[in-house]
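chain below, 303 aa
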Amino acid sequence: MTEVAEKSSTGAGTAVGARPQHLLLTLLGDFWYYRTEVLPSTALVRLLAEFGVAEGNARAAISRLARKELLVATRQGRRTAYGLSETGHATLVEGTHRIFRFGSNPQPWDGRWTMLAFSVPEENRPLRSTLRTRLRWLGFTALFDGVWAAPGDHSAAASTLLAELSLTTATVLVGTASGPPGGDPAGAWDLQDVAARYTAFLSDFQDVAARVHAGAVTDAEALVLRTTLIDVWRTFPNLDPELPTDLLPADWPATRARALFTDVYDSLGPQATRRFRELVAVDDPAAALLARHHTSAEALDET
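prediction:
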């Protein structure tokens, strides 16, 4: 197996190393997208077992997702089955759109930045943690503890987030940056580290691409590799704010990395779907036939 596949079997920085809850949502987002039907709990356990998740841990993850109201349990005779809740569905749609839109359509830059200043009391740490996580997802990073910035006009998204979190002690500003040398907000990002991560992604998955196009990947490998691929790629929207080209170093590797991501993701789709169906069919052959994959282009179009 390739280095990436070997990492997949050990959980070293790949999908297998992800929390079972996160892994299950990734699988449902990839092969059960927009489906309202339910899947037997035993099928979900079997899917997670493909990634080395023990049965007890798998059942605990399913229960936690249900308690978070991302999955809804139903009874099918003597067995329990789970489907996505409205919240779970919305979560997958939002995540899918963000992951596949990332890097797909670079926009020209007019030199403006969105600045968000907020104050959250120390005793409300969960709100502060949620806000910071969501801001990173939107492309912001911290200039100071309560002052965050993103290139371009993100005022609408930031205002929507503040309203959703009922946070009134915050201000959103859009404008150009000026100040002493070295005061450019772009310096808040560690671009060397981001570039190194893209380079590592290219190194790992170029080998995978070669094996896929040579027909040297089994269906079981395809499911693990595709899930690993998207699990690694989904970290980039939190790392890379998609700075305008004139603020980036020469030969920035993001475009090449995205091209590789879409190539491998799309190429592995049919085989990975066959394996997903095979695993589900043990418990529910009819439900297995409903599983389908989408391409990177389809993920952009689906609403």
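The chain has a mean pLDDT of 86. The radius of gyration is 21 Å.
thats it, cya
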